[in-house]
């Protein structure tokens, strides 16, 4: 088995909502990430506000400015709001055209990332913003990740599969708990999500207890108790560190870093690392 890289860095973004974006924050994050030099940029959905073509044009131009390689998935706002026919028959046609299906899987030295779409154009419930995940797709993702061996294994989807405490909204993902358990028991390291517009990180209780659910904040004006922000994830041989970076109005400043044990860490590295408690980080200037 090859040695793990000394550090893998993932930039985790979500919910820029072009059409309702925080222009200053969305622009400043480009320079911030270029300076932080992530190995992977992961965007967990809701690139647009109403799924309009002009919003996807903005999102496409923004993604082109962010560091490569990238992986992105769709969110509930990425289905057309006003075009009922498109929402019914091709809810993510515009996402695929402007963002592209090829970003659904990334293989790098020491890292394997996979995207799953938990958003739906229409559902048999009143609130179509809620999530849904297919367990057969989850099992295939787990099988592919197991084949990646000792790599850092990342799943990217829009809705949190397990509800974070103190979140302002609910993802209410159909089969979310079952999918989260499959991913944890399959040894997936990180489940990266958006939707709630608040950063959080916690370990799942299944498997070895070292699979992490991590949520990014928003880069839009639709804040929910936290300022616009993104998260930086540093995976080292013994630990995974999650640090939200909050928009101050002039730049991004790191908030408190949450440190978790990484799968495969020797017992001597686990002492003092706290895992398992849900953490949300409301900012002082959110609205």
Short key terms for the protein model shown above:
7 helices; 14 strands; 23% helix; 287 residues; disordered C terminus; alpha/beta; Purple Acid Phosphatase, chain A, domain 2
Describe the structure.
This protein has helices at about 25-35, 55-65, 85-90, 95-100, 135-145, 175-185, 265-270; strands at about 10-15, 40-45, 70-75, 105-110, 110-115, 150-155, 190-195, 200-205, 210-215, 230-235, 240-245, 250-255, 260, 280. It starts with 7 loop residues before the first strand and ends in a 7-residue tail after the last strand. The chain contains seven helices and 14 strands. The chain is globular. Strands 1, 2, 3, 10, 11, 12 and 13 form a seven-stranded mixed β-sheet that branches. The chain has a seven-stranded mixed β-sheet with strand order 4-5-6-7-9-8-14, with no helix packed on it. Helix 5 runs parallel beside helix 6. It has one domain (about 10-280): 4-Layer Sandwich (Purple Acid Phosphatase, chain A, domain 2), CATH 3.60.21. The chain has about 290 residues and is an alpha/beta fold.
Task: Offer a concise description of the structure.
It is built from 7 helices and 14 strands.
């Amino acid at each position: 088995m090859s040695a793990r890289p000394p550090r893998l860095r993932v930039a985790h973004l979500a919910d820029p909502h072009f059409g309702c974006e925080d222009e200053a924050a969305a622009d400043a994050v480009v320079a911030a990430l270029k300076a932080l030099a992530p190995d992977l940029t992961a965007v967990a959905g809701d690139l647009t506000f109403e799924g309009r073509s002009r919003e996807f044009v903005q999102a496409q131009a923004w993604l082109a400015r962010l560091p490569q390689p990238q992986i992105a998935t769709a969110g509930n706002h990425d289905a057309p709001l006003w075009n009922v026919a498109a929402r019914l028959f091709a809810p993510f046609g515009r996402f695929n055209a402007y963002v592209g299906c090829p970003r659904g899987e990334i293989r790098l030295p020491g890292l394997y990332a996979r995207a799953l779409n938990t958003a739906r154009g229409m559902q048999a419930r009143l609130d179509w913003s809620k999530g849904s995940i297919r367990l057969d797709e989850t099992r295939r993702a787990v099988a592919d990740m197991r084949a990646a061996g000792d790599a850092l294994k990342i799943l990217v989807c829009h809705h949190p599969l397990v509800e974070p405490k103190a979140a302002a909204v609910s993802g209410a993902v159909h089969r979310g708990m079952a999918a989260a358990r499959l991913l944890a028991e399959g040894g997936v390291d990180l489940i990266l999500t958006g939707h709630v517009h608040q950063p959080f990180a916690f370990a799942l209780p299944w498997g070895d207890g070292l699979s992490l659910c991590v949520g990014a904040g928003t880069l839009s004006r639709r804040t929910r108790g936290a300022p616009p922000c993104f998260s930086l994830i540093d995976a080292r041989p013994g630990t995974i560190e999650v640090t939200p970076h909050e928009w101050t109005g002039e730049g991004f400043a790191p908030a408190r870093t949450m440190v978790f044990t990484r799968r495969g860490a020797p017992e001597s590295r686990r002492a003092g690392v706290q895992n398992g408690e849900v953490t949300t980080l409301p900012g002082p200037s959110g609205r």
